[in-house]
Design brief:
It is a single chain. α3 runs antiparallel to α4 and α5 runs antiparallel to α6. A hairpin with a 4-residue loop joins β1 and β2. The chain is of the alpha+beta class. Strands 1, 2, 3, 4 and 5 form a 5-stranded antiparallel β-sheet that branches. The chain has a domain of 131 residues: Nuclear Transport Factor 2, Chain: A (Roll).
Length: 246
Amino acid sequence: MDGEINLLTLLSLVVAVVAIIKLRSLLGRRTEEDESRIERKREAMNKQVAGAQSDKVVALPQRGRQAEPAEATVSVAEVEERIKAFAGADTQLATRLMDILRLDSTFEPETFIRGAKQAYEMIVTAFAEGNRRMLRDLLSADVLDSFSRAISEREQQNLVIDQSFVGINKADILEAEVSSKGIASITVRFVSQLISATRDKSGEIVDGDESRVKDVTDIWTFSRDISSKEARRNLNWKLVGTQSPN
């Protein structure tokens, strides 16, 4: 009996030791699932950081933000040369862009175009979704009123836009000016591609084609007050006018 008890006790101890060793070997070891989960979290954090950095670099889509404009990292002379290269043979456009630069030393046309493209996609998408809150931060009062009325008419007819934004093929500055009150305006022509279909309440397509990529050309004018240091703290350019190409 004592021998059996000792044998059972010994076997129990062996099992316990093996279990402890196995547990210790697993603790601190990352499984493939753990690695995948950690990588997903790392990617999400990187996107958040990148998004925050992008907000600081591209001023146009910023919503309701007022901050001290960043100091120019290059000289005005260097930016003037960039403007001349950007405008090419259009000397009048170059002159008008330099007028903006003289009031706002942080202005660069390439940076503006990057922001304008982001704003264009945000506005087109928000309009299709009926997102008035997003539009409110990006449009002037007059343009917002026009867009809101179009959305309301669509809602009253129980119409829904099913849209996918494919991308922007081209974005060119056509005109620029600074008013006597220090209001800068820049007109941009966007050439984009969309997949868009309008459906009625039964889901039937009444306009557009859900399987066809459509080329769209829009001419939009953005505006910003750069008349004073205080005004320039508001980094937002707002959409103040839209038109279709001739």
